[in-house]
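Please, structure for the following, as tokens.
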Amino acid sequence: MQITKLSAESILPLTCSRSGTCCFGKAVLLNPWELMRLGREKKITAKVFRDLYCEFGGIQLRFDGAADKKGQKACSQYDESSGCSVHLGRPSACRLYPLGRQIQFEKATYMFEGEIFPCLTDCAEVLELPKLSVGDYLKGQAAAPFEKSQDHYLTVMQNIADIAFELLLDSGLAASGDTKTIGLWRILGIESPEMLAVRIGQEWMDCLMIPKINNTFENPEVFIQKHNDLLLIKAKEQFENIQTLQELHEAAVLMFAIALHLSRGLGADTRGISEHWIATAIQHGAKELEE
């Protein structure tokens, strides 16, 4: 798929016609802060929102509404008469659509798939509406705090992965000749989100997606820092008394799985990240069973 890269000054037909066509047949991914925001906008708890409207433990919105003419199911939050029922709490994927966003060397790049602007496929009427720069569109979508939440959760993802590295490399597990851990890490990198959520288990999935943090919804940086601290505290409490190599192996696999699951909710290249982390671990002494 060809990617068209953009600058903040790029001018595109970004004024939305509000036809709702983009609310069908998509994969809308969520980070935990966005999940909390959606629950609040729906006037229910994040847990109830997750259980009713999300897939894979909360990292993706469920699309199980009525189908459009193409047979694509509507987002669970789409109301045929009024549109998005959680519009003010909508996540970054919805605010940026049809744009994608990539972070590289701490710099954001925006893009869309293909040579033809995606909105023109189903919403040709946007050509009659005012065009906007990418920067002005993002301001109008109030995207900044949601982009920040994505960036901060990338740091959390790496912090969780670092725990997996410590459990493998600094505990004596890798030095013992263990090859099972890297073997399972490879499996996790290609495992379905459904299976990964099952492997992680309900207790850790709740800590990852619906942390008990109050009164910090408006500031993603504060919320995510508190969430990061909760995850690190839970890991320390659960793993500080580990005594056997098997327990170290299981803990390293669990934390690796959690980091990868969070990466998927952030829209990252989960398989690519997995391979990068595995290569890094091998460079630092981890072993893999030779075929």
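The first helix runs from residue 32 to 42. Strands lie at 3-6, 11-12, 54-55, 60-61, 78-79, 83-84, 100-104, 107-113, 132-133.
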